[in-house]
Amino acid sequence: xxxxxxxxxxxxxxxxxxxxxxxxxxxxxxxxxxxxxxxxxxxxxxxxxxxxxxxxxxxxxxxxxxxxxxxxxxxxxxxxxxxxxxxxxxxxxxxxxxxxxxxxxxxxxxxxxxxxxxxxxxxxxxxxxxxxxxxxxxxxxxxxxxxxxxxxxxxxxxxxxxxxxxxxxxxxxxxxxxxxxxxxxxxxxxxxxxxxxxxxxxxxxxxxxxxxxxxxxxxxxxxxxxxxxxxxxxxxxxxxxxxxxxxxxxxxxxxxxxxxxxxxxxxxxxxxxxxxxxxxxxxxxxxxxxxxxxxxxxxxxxxxxxxxxxxxxxxxxxxxxxxxxxxxxxxxxxxxxxxxxxxxxxxxxxxxxxxxxxxxxxxxxxxxxxxxxxxxxxxxxxxxxxxxxxxxxxxxxxxxxxxxxxxxxxxxxxxxxxxx
Length: 420
Ligand SMILES: Cc1cc2nc3c(=O)[nH]c(=O)nc-3n(C[C@H](O)[C@H](O)[C@H](O)COP(=O)(O)OP(=O)(O)OC[C@H]3O[C@@H](n4cnc5c(N)ncnc54)[C@H](O)[C@@H]3O)c2cc1C
Hints:
Elements: E1 6-7, E2 14-19, H1 23-36, E3 54-55, E4 58-64, E5 68-70, H2 75-78, H3 82-88, E6 89-91, E7 103-114, E8 119-124, E9 130-134, E10 137-140, E11 144-145, H4 157-173, E12 176-180, H5 184-196, E13 201-205, H6 219-231, E14 235-237, E15 242-247, E16 257-261, E17 266-269, E18 271-274, E19 280-281, E20 297-298, E21 315-317, E22 322-323, H7 330-353, E23 369-373, E24 376-381, E25 385-389, H8 390-397, H9 403-410
Parallel strand pairs: 1-3, 2-4, 2-10, 4-7, 10-21, 12-13, 12-18, 13-14, 20-22
Antiparallel strand pairs: 5-6, 7-8, 8-9, 11-19, 15-16, 16-17, 23-24, 24-25
Helix pairs in contact: 1-7
The structure holds flavin-adenine dinucleotide.
Residues 19-25, 63-66, 72-73, 75-76, 109-110, 141-143, 146, 150-151, 185, 282, 285, 319-320, 328-331, 333, 370, 372 line the site of flavin-adenine dinucleotide (FAD).
InterPro entries: FAD/NAD-bd_sf, FAD/NAD-binding_dom
GO cellular component, one term: cytoplasm
Domain FAD/NAD(P)-binding: 14-337
């Protein structure tokens, strides 16, 4: 018998529960599936070692409030572009990579985790009842909450398409639009809108004297972003806070809102988009001792919980919800998912055949950013410095805000391969 045909035995399949079926959660679930099928993980771009020689029985449950995988980073464009909206949300049941009885998808909201008993309580969307799901390993990948219109608020594909269509028609019919907040989301919203509706007057208002002021990035990044926006016809007002936003009764649609700025200036506009959204971690279902002062999950470099809870070694947190330095990014969430899968696999091996798990540990990453600004992009890494332009946009985002490249990276369209 070839080594690959060897199946390690445990009393029953390992039960892995993943909370959140987005970049981080799917990365863990799919990389772990590869490893337990005695294959190199799909993210094996930097060498992870030889492929495992034995298969391990596993049952993965993915719980999500949404009915599918949503390409969140495309939101500044997908909310105003129906074609991209349609491609941005794929119901879990339509994802070939998850089409296996080894993956169970539960649509619902996790309400409580009992770390001692290793049981997750889930409010099942379909029945309204609370399910108690036992697990051996828990992966918390439920990210942060953000408000509309930074992200859509729908939890199923049908509602999302309606939400995007309504948003798009409201925004497109205005002859001018004011966007409040020049952070990463605001600058992307402004640039995408100007590209999609070139005749529209788009004004971006930011309270500080430089864009992206809350990101730990060099000034030259903000300067390049500002130059790109101005080049493409976005008007930018810096160092002004919006003091009030008032609806003008009986005014024409083009003059529906009056904004008062901190210097007393008034701006009349047809539509206002608020791009300021505080990120609130979705960790309310976890014990307080697992969390830092801001509600993010304290993790070790292995991504296992660092807080004082029972069984910390069987609890992992990844992606935006993890208390980890650096700019929160989808690439970071997927990278953490990869490491989390490697570490859980190590633990499974150790439980089956003895020995100690060899953990991969995450190194704090330097600030890195890539921004899609209409037909152009601006990026920054400490090694490459600031880059910008149309070619960069094609490389980083394609023409669909990197929707296809994220799907390809996760191999969502490839059928779930199982050794017979
Ligand atoms: C507008 C915008 C643009 C962005 N652009 C970029 C970019 O260009 N590049 C980049 O690298 N990053 C970008 N980001 C950041 C990136 O989107 C996040 O870093 C990434 O989504 C984090 O992935 P995650 O898997 O940790 O969480 P998320 O993608 O937030 O997914 C969390 C999942 O958990 C589910 N969930 C939440 N609570 C519960 C619960 N209690 N029970 C069950 N399920 C739950 C949610 O429904 C969701 O599916 C952008 C973010 C925004 C908002």
